[in-house]
Amino acid sequence: MAKYKRVLLKLSGESLMGEQQHGIDEKRLSEYATQIKEVVEMGVQVGIVIGGGNIFRGLSGASKGYDRVKGDQMGMLATVINSLGLSSALVAIGQKARVLTAIRMEPIGEFYSKWKAIEAMENGEVAIISCGTGNPFFTTDTGSALRGIEIEADVMLKGTRVDGVYTADPEKDPTATKYEKISYDEVYNKGLKVMDLTATTMCKENDFPIVVFDMDTVGNLAKVIKGENIGTYVHA
Ligand code: UDP
Known about the structure:
single chain; alpha/beta; Carbamate kinase; 8 helices; 37% helix; binds uridine-5'-diphosphate
């Protein structure tokens, strides 16, 4: 039985790289597609926001001399590339998917609206919502918070390579321990890096919970959907 009826899944661009240093790893992409199809078949409506950090980030571009707004636009276009890749991988295994873009660019994708996303999900399609918020100076974490709240998802599932929120960076500090549950206030007060502050504030103000979990282990998405305690639940 699924714990959630409608979810917003956030995938970072970096996670699409798999073992590579850049770009898209087809094996990782197809593992994600398989996991997503599995939960749609459980009757869950799935909206997805993907990052673009595997291709371009406006902030790091700016430090190399790119205009920040153009760099952010490059980053948003990177999310479209990733979204097309994931939709292609889903369709290849028989899972319908629709790419929506927050910036008009038909015929690459349909121009996003809340209702188009909901129509797609109610039709059994995965709604892949690209371009983040559609504006520079934001991140796809904020895009995920925004779209998740807009499409009335029950929760944001933030798939990462670590299996939750820790007291310190577990890749650097071996004594770090994982939180099973934590509030947004504690995340602020302890300075934990879960999402950027804009995204965190949006989630807190709109009482929108997130689950941070390891999406790179095949089968974990279904476990989280079933309510198994494998990640960290962050709540208002
Ligand atoms: N971006 C943006 N507005 C948004 C979302 C993303 O300008 O609403 C740009 C920004 O340059 C960002 C890049 O797209 O660095 C890729 O997104 P993000 O860094 O969130 O990707 P991730 O870290 O999840 O791979």
